[in-house]
Design a protein that fits this description.
93 residues, single chain, elongated, mainly alpha
Length: 93
């Protein structure tokens, strides 16, 4: 059986490094949000992980828009007309 003291010491060191890495990651996300105005369109067919991507980006603090907002939110009813026009227009317009 491994020495419990060594085991705990190793795992505590790993946990401290993990927490520091996690803090650094969230600090990096905040810097990106403050200094970049990049907008991304992540278009995908249904059942390809778009809701998971939406959820992940929102949890990191990046505001997102998903098509379920068009269908489920009655305040966005006008969005449906816009997206129908986009879908039915010739490419490149």
């Amino acid at each position: 059986m491994p020495d419990l003291k060594i085991y705990l010491s190793y795992n505590l060191d790993w946990l401290i490094k993990y927490e520091k890495l996690k803090q650094s990651f969230f600090i990096l996300i905040e810097i990106i949000k403050l200094h970049m105005s990049l907008k991304i369109i992540g278009a995908g067919y249904g059942r390809t992980g778009t809701l998971s991507t939406y959820t992940a980006l929102n949890s990191l603090g990046f505001p997102c828009y998903h098509m379920f907002e068009v269908i489920e939110n009655k305040e966005n009813k006008t969005h449906l007309d816009f997206w129908n026009k986009v879908a039915n227009s010739p490419g490149g317009q």
